[in-house]
Write a structure and sequence with these properties.
The structure is a single chain. This protein is α/β, with parallel strands linked by helices and about 350 residues long. It folds into two domains: about 110 residues, 3-Layer(aba) Sandwich (Rossmann fold), CATH 3.40.50; about 150 residues, 3-Layer(aba) Sandwich (Rossmann fold). It contains 13 helices and 13 strands. α3 packs across α11 and α6 packs across α7. The protein is elongated, with a radius of gyration of 30 Å.
């Protein structure tokens, strides 16, 4: 009987230890010695997007969303950003509805869109009015009325200044011609370039506007033969510009000309159409853009984009990526709003040399 009682006492003493081993609980002394592991504090930071995910602009919406996702992947290590995606259905009215839905659900840190920028009118008159920045991507100089609507683009004035300054100061050019399409955009480019050039010591010896269908181009080229020129500014699309340039260089009386162009020239269309005529001739083709596909920034973006989506990115995706990245990386909401309602990336001077587009400055 004594042996039985002793056995029960021993078993009772062992039970807590067995229970701890089975349940995974730690003895009290062990808990006191273990230091708690520090974990990153995850705070949800919401922002919104208004994109045309259905309708005629749906492809543009998909491309925009991929640029946004790449920016999030680049910066958000702990998943703290929560993006709310709203479909504008490719209309200004749809953008207005999407904006109201978004702002009723969250107070976003910022909003990317609406895309395209012409649909911004749908949210300018919407209620409620929020103070957070709304980033848009205009093709042309879209003027927003509310002070929190931020245009992310390379302004025409900045492109003109970049090209003219490089031509006058770095290349020491003096005599220029302007040959532009007879369109609103062409006329504006021509006027701004001529005025800036004259104010800074350059001389416009010929200025002409050709039909958008290029039917009267030969008439202008005949006039160009009469002048000794250093450079010709051609503010047109990539395809039209290559056609104009090839017609000019085919004229034996026009030689040693430097052709200047806007950021529309920084495209595969322009490169593929002109590389056989200008490949390896530095300073014959000069244009400006904020995208340099040989830069470290572009290479990092491109590699990450390919990893995420298994395809090559375009310039538009990069533009959306840069704008989103700007807001994600910096808490500059007030400074942005007060900065002339625009975000302007730095412009580069580019040319075609040795089989590729390269940066000169």
């Amino acid at each position: 009987m004594k042996i039985q009682i002793l056995s029960f006492l021993i078993l009772a003493l062992l039970l807590p230890s067995v229970s701890s081993a089975e349940t995974g609980a730690r003895p009290e002394t062990v808990v006191e010695d273990v230091q708690p592991q520090l974990q990153p504090t995850v705070v949800s930071r919401p922002f919104g997007t208004i994109l045309p995910l259905t309708g005629k602009y749906s492809k543009l919406g998909e491309r925009s969303l991929r640029g946004i996702r790449t920016a999030i992947e680049q910066t958000d290590q702990f998943g703290s950003y929560h993006v709310f995606v709203k479909d504008s259905k490719s209309t200004s009215e749809g953008a207005s509805i999407a904006y109201r839905q978004l702002t009723s659900e969250i107070t976003p840190l910022f909003v990317i869109g609406p895309v395209p920028s012409t649909h911004v009118s749908g949210i300018e008159n919407s209620n409620p009015v929020i103070s957070q920045p709304v980033a848009i991507f205009p093709i042309f100089n879209t003027k927003a009325h509310r002070n929190n609507i931020i245009s992310f683009y390379l302004p025409m004035d900045y492109q003109v200044k970049t090209l003219a300054d490089f031509s006058l100061r770095d290349l020491k050019l003096k005599k220029f011609a302007v040959l532009s399409p007879d369109t609103v955009v062409g006329d504006l480019y021509s006027s701004k370039f001529s005025k800036y050039l004259k104010r800074n010591g350059g001389k416009i010896v010929y200025s002409g506007s050709y039909n958008p269908d290029l039917s009267d181009l030969d008439t202008h080229i005949k006039w160009l033969e009469s002048y000794k020129l250093d450079a010709i500014f051609i503010p047109d699309s990539a395809k039209n510009s290559t056609f104009v340039i090839k017609h000019i260089i085919s004229d034996d009386d026009i030689t040693n000309i430097i052709f200047l162009g806007p950021n529309t020239w920084n495209s595969e269309i322009f490169y593929n159409l002109s590389k056989n005529d200008f490949d390896g001739i530095v300073h014959k083709i000069i244009f400006t853009d904020f995208i340099d596909k040989n830069s470290e920034d572009w290479i990092n973006f491109s590699n990450l984009y390919r990893t995420l989506f298994n395809e090559r990115p375009g310039s538009y995706e990069y533009q959306v990526y840069l704008a989103t990245l700007f807001f994600l990386e910096k808490d500059l909401r007030r400074e942005i709003v007060s900065s002339n309602n625009s975000l302007t990336p730095k412009a580069h001077i580019l040319t075609i040399d040795d089989g590729r587009i390269v940066r000169l400055k």
